[in-house]
Amino acid sequence: MRLLFLILVLLGGCETVQPWERGTLARPEMQLDSDPLETTLMEQVYESKEAASGGNGAAGAGCGCN
Fold first, then answer.
1. Judging by beta carbons within 10 Å of its beta carbon (0-12, 13-18, 19+), is residue 38 exposed, middle or buried?
2. How far apart (Å, rounded) are the C-alpha atoms in residues 1 and 53?
3. How far is CA 18 from CA 26, 31, 49, 66, in A?
4. Residue 42: exposed, middle, or buried by beta-carbon count in 10 A (0-12, 13-18, 19+)?
5. Do the beta carbons of residue 40 and residue 55 sit within 8 Å?
């Protein structure tokens, strides 16, 4: 019974997007990341301070510069 309920809940989120609706979904305010430049900068600062890199393909020098 729980499995059936879970399947029904998950299927309720499925929606077919028509070609003419894709322009609305591509607008900047619909993106999860509202400012990609700021996100890139914050990732660079995080990697330089934590000495951790990966996931975005940028190599860090440890000082925050490239």
1. exposed
2. 44
3. 13, 18, 44, 42
4. exposed
5. no
How confident is the model over 6-57, as pLDDT tens digits? Answer: 888 888 777 788 888 888 888 878 878 778 888 888 888 887 777 655 555 5
Closest CA to 62 of 50, 44, 48, 52: 48
| Nearest in space to 40 (alpha carbons), one of 14, 15, 58 | 58
- Scanning the structure block, which residue is given the tokens 């305010």? 29
Predicted TM-score (pTM) of the model is: 0.36
